[in-house]
Amino acid sequence: MTTPKSYRHPLSDRERDILRLVVQSFIETAGPVGSRYLAKRFPIGLSPASIRNTMSDLEDLGYLGHPYTSAGRMPTELGYRAFVDDLMASPELSSAEKQQLQAELDQIMGDTEELLRESSRLLGRMSSLLGVVLSPKLSRGVMERLEVVPLSSTRVMVVISVRSGFVKTIVLEVESRVKRSELDRVVAILNERLAGLTLDEIRRTYTTRTRDIDDDRTGIVRLLQSESDVLFSEPAEGRVRLSGTHHLITQPEFQEVDNVRHLIGLIEDEGYVVHLLEEQEAAEADDTDADDEVGRAVATIGSENSDENVERYSIVTAKYAVGDTVGTLGIIGPMRMDYERVMALIENMAALISRPTTT
To answer: What is the pLDDT of residues 5-62, one digit of tens each?
Structure first.
């Protein structure tokens, strides 16, 4: 990932003011910004000629560009980066929006799965972009309880409850019908030995922790051992919640069919979205102290993203904590997004999800 945070030139106060106004105006209008427009709209005390000269200097420095000779200017990736890092106001939602978020999430705080689904819907709706929530890695979660539920004479359902409220289920084939009393006894032994460990620890040490259980007539201990790589690892699908595609495609950048087709192709591949957000997690971890990770919004802009397929987009993410596990939520949209509002939404949502729950 390339992050152009070392700017080529220390900007003067005038250059900073003009760059900020150009970025804000372009985000609002989606059209190139001219010097006369700035002079008329903002009380900056400069003539159009002075503004035009400053804009020309900013273009020479790589902060602004223009689509054709007679047009006004528009921000480059470097211009957006400077805006996000140094020029925009601190992200903040209005009191009414904060109350709206809290009220909607309070109704479902006890249901982790619904909480994550609703969070993606709220992010998409309130940003008019694509809201994305990636559930925590279950392999890092602490197992609270293991249950084995007979479904038929040859099938059982294994239910793994993780401390943060997540549940993983899988149906397995058994060689013969098992007695419920014997099954309960074996499962109780397994819970004594495995509860309180992360799923990754269980996967790595299951054989060692259960090798002395030699009176298992149910075959469950051996069955779980043979399936441990599936049972105690990440699920193949279901970690991503997406919402807001219908909002996103109303943005001017998606008026062309090819752009819409490109976006849909990306988000239909859940594995790709997981990879993309986990790359964001890794970049955040490299760029922040561990204590500061949860709740801090980070923006990657254009070619700063880890994959060339998303070089036309910006991605804003933050980590959230549910119990002992950490996930990622984010907003994906064009580079011309309202970064101040989007980062405020992300940080507030991460803080609300990460609140300790009362029982």
So the answer is: 445 678 999 999 999 999 999 999 999 999 999 999 999 999 999 999 999 999 999 9
Amino acid at 209: R
Residue with tokens 């299951």: 206
Give yes or no: residues 51 and 147 share one domain: no
pTM: 0.84
Q: Is 30 in the same domain as 160?
A: no
Continuous H helices in the chain: 13-29, 35-41, 48-60, 77-82, 95-106, 112-127, 180-194, 199-210, 220-226, 228-231, 245-248, 257-267, 270-287, 339-353
248 in the same domain as 158: no
Other CB atoms within a 10 A radius of the CB of residue 182 amount to 14
Taking alpha carbons only, the member of 26, 6, 15, 9 closest to residue 253 is: 26
Instruction: Name the residue range of residue 68's domain.
Output: 13-87
Cβ proximity of 151 and 170 under 8 Å: no
Q: At 69, which helix (H) or strand (E)?
A: none
Give the Cα separation of 314 and 302 in Å (integer).
6
Burial pattern 244-263, b for ≥16 Cβ within 10 A else e, equals: bbebbeebebbeeeeeeeeb
Q: Is the four-CA dihedral 81, 85, 87, 93 of positive or negative sign? A: positive
CA distance 243 to 327: 17
pLDDT digit string, tens, across residues 164-184: 778 888 999 888 787 888 899
Of 262, 274, 343, 268, the residue nearest 308 (C-alpha): 262
Residue 220 belongs to a domain: yes
Q: What is the CATH number of the domain that holds 54?
A: 1.10.10.10
In a domain, 79, yes or no: yes
Please indicate, yes or no, whether residues 110 and 192 belong to a single structural domain of this protein. Answer: no
Q: Is residue 278 part of a domain?
A: yes
User: d(Cα 178, Cα 351) in Å, to the nearest integer?
Assistant: 46
Positive or negative CA dihedral for 323, 327, 332, 337? positive
